[in-house]
Amino acid sequence: MLRTVKNMEDYVISATDGNIGHVKDVYFDDETWCIRYLVVDTGTWLSSRKVLISPISIGQANWADKLLPVSITKVQVENSPDISTQKPVSRQQEIRLLEYYGYPYYWGGDGMWGGGVYPNMMLTGYVGLASPPDVEHPEVANEK
């Protein structure tokens, strides 16, 4: 069944050690129209900080209870790189965020998620880029 982004608003994000917060928005890739990040409002436990959560970490959704489990901890979220959710995310910020969580770069293959079709495929047998592309000179990265 297809779901709308509006339908996902206020879904609870459940970390391995408790709830992180609620979905408030999403960031789309402007080329593939793929959801790259969920904007999550952490509520009072983290002073209402908004954080970006990659779909790579999302497990099987519980649609009835409006719950999205993620394979990260509250401590990881608390210590995650601070990224403004009021502006577009730069490639440098993405690199910092993906490296922090130990995720491969999704832009390293032919699929929407690197070599995979789904985000969680990146963590199971995916061979990502050995190093980040040249972000200071994007035209070089595009020629490779």
Structure characterization notes:
The structure is a single chain. With 144 residues, this protein is of the alpha+beta class. 18% of the residues lie in helices and 20% in strands. It has helices spanning 5-8, 74-78, 91-101, 138-143, and strands at residues 12-15, 18-28, 35-41, 50-53, 67-69. A hairpin with an 8-residue loop joins β3 and β4. The radius of gyration is 15 Å and the shape is globular.
Write the layout of secondary structure elements.
Elements: H1 5-8, E1 12-15, E2 18-28, E3 35-41, E4 50-53, E5 67-69, H2 74-78, H3 91-101, H4 138-143
Parallel strand pairs: 1-5
Antiparallel strand pairs: 1-2, 2-3, 3-4
Describe the structure in brief.
The protein has about 140 residues and is an alpha+beta fold. It contains four helices and five strands.
Features of the shown structure:
disordered C terminus; globular; alpha+beta; five-stranded mixed sheet; 4 helices; 144 residues
Q: Describe the oligomeric state of these chains in a short phrase.
A: single chain
Described by the principal axes of the CA atoms, the overall outline is globular
Largest sheet: 5 strands, mixed
Tell me the series of helices and strands, N- to C-terminal. HEEEEEHHH
Task: Tell me the structural class.
Answer: alpha+beta
- End-to-end CA span: 38 Å
Share of helix, binned: 10-25%
Tally of alpha and pi helices: 4
Strand content: 15-25%
Rg calculated over all Cα atoms: 15 Å
- The residue-averaged pLDDT reads 83
Poorly predicted segments: 125-144
Number of strands: 5
| Widest sheet, order of strands | 4-3-2-1-5
